[in-house]
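Hi team,

Below is the intake form for Membrane-bound lytic murein transglycosylase F from Nitrosomonas marina. Please confirm the fields before the structure is written into the shared record.

FORM ID: S-0412
PROTEIN: Membrane-bound lytic murein transglycosylase F
ORGANISM: Nitrosomonas marina
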Amino acid sequence: MCTVKIRFATIILYGVFLSGCIPSDKPVSPFAMTNELVVITIAHADNFHIDSEGNFSGITYDLVNEFAAEIGLEIRFIVMPRLELALAALKQHRAHFAIGLDIPDQYTYRFILGPVYLHTHHQIAFNAGSSEPTDIQQLIGKLIEVPVGSTHENLLQKMKVKIPGLAWSAVPQSSELLLTKLEKGEIDYTVADSLHIKKANHFHHRVKGAFELDVSASRWIFPKYTEKLLIDKVNEFFERIKQEGVLGQLLDSYSGPYYQLSPGDIYFFKKKIHSRLPALKKYFMQAARITGIDWRLLAALAYQESHWNQRAKSPTGVSGIMMLTRETARRMGIDNLADTRMNILGGARYLKLLKEKLPENVPEPDRTWMALAAYNQGYGRVIDARALARRFNLNPDLWIDLKKMLPLLNKQHYAEEIKYGHARGDEAVTLTNSVRAYYEILKRATTED
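The structure came back. Fields below:
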């Protein structure tokens, strides 16, 4: 992903300044004459996150960053405390466009709406220690908190018109923090994006999603009289990233791992992080220093292969914590598969070899995900899947396309036409997605430690 210089300005948020100064009330320079792209958002927007140090993340941020890099402009973000203030500022042309806003239907005629790139499902989140609510009436009288000024607050305000007894607190906290409070039992419910709830469940096993309130479309919003040049550039940008698979790649990077693991998978993995991983961590870190691969990725792969069981064996002849064949171990310079340290090093060397064998034009992180698939089914199977991707006019260098092709290796029709023949390609996809999910949990767990 390209990077550009970013400036950060903010309106007063809850009585304090985060950084910068109050932005000018004057309209921004026309797009054709500006040296910066000015973008408005709100403090707790969906898919656009700002941490306490002013760092940005999220798919919406990545898209703006990519667009600014493409047109060669710096970015200046203006963060407003509430939706209505953001829309008022945009109407006054104080930014070139806005992101992360769920514009009410009655206001759409005042603006130009960009292409839809994501649908957000707004869902009630609850603590599994209590009963799951099945309708909005069951929320009356409960302690509900949502981020102030967010899409979720606006959604509840709409529902209150029909359900006057519905009440909640709008607080200056992100959905991520509120889901943590939900896990601890400090609140009864919150409203969040269904993906955020699924992601939170990887770290907080009591957080669950109940019924869905609404679905909103994520897209950039422009002032009504925006220059045609900017609108055309944006439309061309979204058309390109859709055709080249960049948009799908971004969506996969944020949502891909979070639908693979069951609650039971997560529960037992987190238990073994405390019971088994401490004794193995030094071996993973040593292998990481030798190969340059993140030790947490190696640990995630080892867990998927053996659940960190040093004595693991399979009927097919693979064994040890990384489940290596004797032939692979020999090629990696490992002569004792029962030695945990050497087994981990052998698996790390093999994964590095697979990554290096892939064509140079395969980018990261796709290169790593393809190497994981090859670790499971062999490098030749990845080559076969790449050939099928080309046949179906897909991009063989992107994991989001390759993972569609790997299951076809199971089918006799395709197996007869490819170089290396039949394979359980669906298992390679399952392994890769599971390792990615375990890897995310490990990154979060080790950061917290």
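SUMMARY LINE: The first strand starts at residue 6 and ends at 10.

Thanks, M.
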